[in-house]
């Protein structure tokens, strides 16, 4: 594979939290179009690893390098959906879109996550799964080079899971690097990164 | 680069508009605290006029401080703050829009209320204009300084008291010059110099403050 498809290099990454080593000597290289599933027991440091990668967590040793001419054009969906209850689904998504410089049809994106008819409902009246869908709708806006998704499948129903699988595979097909934490496997060609003790075979 | 800034400003104004209690409470606090002084001290006009500059200014300062505790909290709890910090724009942009929206809906109404409360406190009428100018120039500085404290304490459970301990000492210069300029107006001394000092403090806060707030948020997020 050519070197300009290289997106991310991690070398000898080590992170400690409360005197406990979360991971040590973590190293991997991720390229455009790959899907990386990060697994591990609860408390193994999956969320911390993603936060280190997107630059939210600064207390680590080792090297994290994004290969792109500019800052990585990334989309981060955190553990919390980032949806304010006072705002409607449409207002929430429109703000995320403007902030992340993601032009696109906001209503069509909400439609794609099955929120048709809920655009003007304040998020306080939406269920946990629907709030998560408001956040996930960002994946249907303008493409990004990198997606970093923290437990995107939480509180999503079966139908939504299938649709999200499809979306992640499509994006990877278009060259997006996807890193996500979940126990759900998107497909067979997913690379797996396991944190903590080796998983049982 | 103006897209994210306008979007944040619009969002913040909508948010404050949807929960008006957050906006009205500091204003009521301001009014009630000032009204307590004539009751507690004595209703003698000479005495009230003497303490009025300090009383109005301390009350305004506390009102701004109280309003700042929740500035970033709900964004942090909902995860929206992480979005702002990972967005491909300098985080100073959304932060400064947030600060402006906050000032428009707390500092500005406080400045508009100040002359009424000053009148109630028997300030001579010519000094009321100076009082308004001083609060108008001083409250944005208070908002920015307070936001630095709010950014650093956003992840803490009981950040309220710590926030007060952190930022009240930093409010001292604004209070000294703010109340001082009103006292000068009461005495009939020139006020331009002191107003200019307030303006200088404001310029300093506006130029460096949003950067400090953004860095504070980053430090809080990393924990």
UniProtKB/TrEMBL annotation, chain A:
SUPFAM superfamilies the UniProt entry points to: P-loop containing nucleoside triphosphate hydrolases
UniProt entry tagged with the keyword Zinc: no
Keywords (A to Z) from UniProt: ATP-binding, Cytochrome c-type biogenesis, Membrane, Nucleotide-binding, Translocase, Transport
ABC transporter domain: residues covered: 8-201
Pfam families: ABC_tran (PF00005)
InterPro entries: AAA+_ATPase (IPR003593), ABC_transporter-like_ATP-bd (IPR003439), ABC_transporter-like_CS (IPR017871), ABC_transptr_haem_export_CcmA (IPR005895), P-loop_NTPase (IPR027417)
Protein name as catalogued: Heme exporter protein A
Organism annotation: Alloalcanivorax balearicus MACL04
Automatic annotation (TrEMBL), chain B:
Membrane-topology annotation of the record: Multi-pass membrane protein
One GO location term (cellular component): plasma membrane
Family per similarity comment: Belongs to the CcmB/CycW/HelB family.
Major site of localization recorded for this protein: membrane
Record protein name field: Heme exporter protein B
Function: Required for the export of heme to the periplasm for the biogenesis of c-type cytochromes.
Keywords for the protein's UniProt record, in alphabetical order: Cell inner membrane, Cell membrane, Cytochrome c-type biogenesis, Membrane, Transmembrane, Transmembrane helix, Transport
Gene Ontology MF terms in the entry: heme transmembrane transporter activity
InterPro entries the record matches: Cyt_c_biogenesis_CcmB, Cyt_c_CcmB_bac
Transmembrane segments: 21-41, 47-68, 100-121, 133-154, 161-182, 194-217
GO annotation, biological process: cytochrome c biosynthetic process; cytochrome complex assembly
Name of the gene: ccmB
Any matching Pfam family: CcmB
Localization per record: Cell inner membrane
